[in-house]
Amino acid sequence: xxxxxxxxxxxxxxDVQKGLDDAVYWxxxxxxxxxxxxxxxxxxxxxxxxxxxxxxxxxxxxxxPLRPDSPGNAFKSCITGSPDLLxxxxxxxxxxxxPNLQRWLARRGIHDIAICGITTxxxxxxxxxxxxxxxxxxxxxxxxxxxxxxxxxDGSKISADEIVRVSGANLQGEFAEVISTEQGVAxxxxxxxxxxx
Length: 197
Known about the structure:
The protein has a single domain (9-189), classed as 3-Layer(aba) Sandwich (Rossmann fold), CATH 3.40.50.850. Helices cover 30% and strands 21% of the residues. The chain has helices at residues 23-26, 34-47, 101-107, 120-133, 160-171, 181-189, and strands at residues 9-14, 52-57, 85-89, 112-118, 137-146, 150-151, 157-158, 177-179. The strands form two sheets. Strands 3-2-1-4-5-8 form a six-stranded parallel beta sheet, with helices on both faces. Strands 6-7 form a two-stranded antiparallel sheet. Helix 2 runs parallel beside helix 6 and helix 4 packs parallel to helix 5 (160-171).
């Protein structure tokens, strides 16, 4: 079980948007439990009075289901309630969005973050890598993320499951501690935390 010396962990919920349900555009996905696990994390963070950040991708791509004028830009139904911060971005990392996530965390003295959302290997992994490089203790809740099948540079198919497995290996120990939803819930409930002003 991960150990933590501090009492505040911000949950960063990345790009859980309706447009990512467009299987024709994105292709097959994995982890049908992703949204349920995200809901569990949000509920637990609220019960423990811990900070929650929602991140929304406002795509600049002309055909993207995530562009701001598309219905797909909206959050999925598992994203409930109001966050303590809403960050919008048009690139991969949530640290390059508006308002500035790093500044918001610093003003509240928050040094630990837990990341979940979509997709594992793009915006979630990018945010985790940058968080690690910025000195945050990063918990990557891997079963509260999902990926899509992709084509390798040789044209072969790489399954979403394999992508998630490799993303976890890339992050573990170098940028983040890769944990499950169950571990994240247990971790949060094991600390005394009050949302900072």
